Amino acid sequence: MVARHRWTRLLQILILALLARTLLSCGPASPFAGPQPPAASTAQTGTPVAGRPTSTAEPSPMPSPRASLTPSPSPSPTPSPSPSPTPSPTPSPSPSPAPTLPPRTAPEAGEPLALSLAWRLDGNAHLTAGESLPVDGRQEFRVASLGRTVYALDGRGQLLWRASTAGPAYALASLPGARVAVADDAGRVSVLDAAGNRVWQHDLNTRVTALCPAAGGLLAGGWDERLTRFDAGGGIEWQVGLDGPLTAITVLPLPDGRELAVAATLGGRLWAFTGDGSPAWQFPPAPGKDAPAITLQGAAHKDAAYLLAGLQDGRLLALGPAGELLWERAVGQGAPVWDLADVAASPGPEIAVGSGGDEPSLALFSLQGDVLWRVALTAAANAVVAADLDGDGTREIAAGLADGRVEAYDGAGRMRGAVHAGLPVWRLAAAADGSLLALADVVAWRIVGEAGQTGGAWLPPPATIPDASWSLPAGTEARDGEAVLAFLGDVAPGRSMEFQLLRYGPQHPWAGLAPLLAGDGVLAVANLESVLSSQGPALSKPYVIRAHPLMGEMLAAGGLNVVSLANNHALDYGNEGLDQTLSALGDLALPVVGAGASHDEAHRPAIQTINGVRVAILAYAAARWDGSPDVPATDRLAWAVAGDVQAGVRAVRGEADLVVVLLHAGTEYASEPSADQVSVARAAIDAGADLVVGHHPHVTQTVERYGGGLIVYSLGDAIFDIPRPAAMRGDLLRVHAGREGLSRAELWPFWIADAIRPQLLDDGTGRPQVRIIYP
């Protein structure tokens, strides 16, 4: 396996995922790239369906639109000249190290607070952003999803309207007059009125990931590498070119009543601009520290202004109005999440900060950076917000956890109550009435401070082996003259997986499988169920998956040596998207099988020599997709036509000691292989293949010994976010081979924790489960 460490570039890349959410001012919305039902400019009204949601990451597309959203007749805005982002006097960061926090303590029990789940919205895809706002004296909730949809609900959970967006919705921002701004993957920034009708829309031509209300207007940015300010009517007041895609936007209120627009970019730099777009200051990373800022919040207290910035390396920074560093603290592992509110007896607001990683915690800081307390959490804190849950005039601290729990703490760090949202909680928003809006994967809940339904885990995990707590058993390591091949099923760096990659870095998904993927003499192979592209129009199909090209660093960090693109998502963004994907993988020196610039390239094998053993790998996708609504007719993918597969195997048989065929085919969620899987797999073995490895069904399937070869029909998912119990279980296939062919094959079952961390199943003795399937 070839190790690749490109940390500086990667930390820049991961910013594209956008973790930040709006706090006192605003920040970016959720960083998912996911399923896309057909788009239409519509608003719908109705009633949400009661009962448990369907546990699937791919719900049925929404019904056809019923009412057109007609844009206001206004001319298309024209960008004004862009001020140059050349620096004003740049404040120097402090070179002193960030102080460490005191040890975590177990939270004490506080005064009991009843919490319950009041109502639920079943989304049509992963929910990415949510806000609560008062409208005409009543509480309303707005929710955005990657299903190209914005929902508006009243305080009882009744659907007021539903509007479609051109692409997956990434950001929301509430505007005066009960209007809402929404930004999407297609590059549209739209403003909807209180009834869900479009007021204006502007196309920034690429994914928009961050929105922030500003005095009399709106700030927006994303992959276009510009900060844009719109006026109230949708005209562009100014645009400023920056040094990379934006990661977060906020407004910093100044003591004199003015405000600064502040943007963070993937390069880790903070850029501040005055109201007319003139540069105010820049804040680069401190010497020797390359971690970029990924969450921002501007706030004012008395005569002081504070800019809080969370960094991917776990630091929390506080800057002053001129960009000067006031203090920094090392909060923990991964980017911190926080809220700023008055929750304790001390004067002024405090900062409630949650962390993740191996030692998740909730801590309370003063505005001066002093740690007031720090308690241990049972799972990573993905969201923190303050709300007066019991209506006594004092706010509690709510933490949304990766295991689905929402826990409430008082200002002294004592736990008062909890509910379970069923699935991992990614976002929390506080309502003026003290209730919470919790976004838990594909569902949204309203949480209230009263007795009622408390929920439970929908996907209770099995016993797993902690990351990096074990080593390979004797006899499973690579030996002289032997190659070890490690195969995984579907891997996707987009959708909700980006949230985790942003917080923890590219190696975070792989810790649980590292002993199986690492070492000399190991060749690691996976199916890339995504394109790596910022270009190309999306196909008109329910579910498309993409990530930024630079997200491919995650594949390299896992030690993958070959990836297959022979699947039904390789052309989700057309030929342009496939071209950019191939280019990105080429930059990483990752060989691709199953797709290419031409028919010949798509059918070309990857031939690797491992410990003197020559291994040839071919890849094919089910022929039924060629020219279907899922994939346009093309010769740029290798299709699994039995005759073509056999021809490919025979052509390479004389060049290799071991011939492997990857087969992307079958029926989703089926535990048994389909007829076409069986026929093509057996045809490959008949032609001389030693091994056929399958994926696509999202679940594991059976194994067959056939004609001297081995067929593993489906390994299931490896890094994917479908919340079904069967889809959260996958297999790693580890094969030993010499010059004479296969000698041993093992299946290592795992559970996909947090939709991104495969962790091996415990055999009951603290060791990983393993099943020998050959000989």
Could you name the key traits of this structure?
single chain, 775 residues, mainly beta, Methylamine Dehydrogenase, Chain H, Purple Acid Phosphatase, chain A, domain 2, 9-stranded mixed beta sheet, 6-stranded mixed beta sheet, 8 helices, 9% helix, globular, disordered N terminus
CATH class of the largest domain: Mainly Beta
SS strand fraction: 35-45%
CATH fold-level name of the largest domain: Methylamine Dehydrogenase, Chain H
pLDDT under 50 segments (min length 5)? Answer: 1-25, 27-97
Rg value? 26 Å
What is the number of strand segments? Answer: 50
What is the residue-averaged pLDDT? 87
Q: How far apart, in Å, are the first and last alpha carbons?
A: 25 Å
Number of domains: 2
Kindly describe this structure.
It is a single chain. This protein has 775 residues and is mainly beta. It has 2 domains: 28-49 and 107-448, 7 Propeller (Methylamine Dehydrogenase, Chain H), CATH 2.130.10; 483-774, 4-Layer Sandwich (Purple Acid Phosphatase, chain A, domain 2). Helix content is 9%, strand content 39%. It has 8 helices and 50 strands. Strands 34, 35, 38, 39, 46, 47, 48, 49 and 50 form a 9-stranded mixed β-sheet that branches. Strands 40-41-42-43-45-44 form a 6-stranded mixed β-sheet, covered by helices on one side. Helix 7 (642-653) runs parallel beside helix 8 (675-686). The longest helix is centred in the last third of the chain and has 14 residues, at 574-587. It is globular, with a radius of gyration of 26 Å. 59% of the residues are buried.
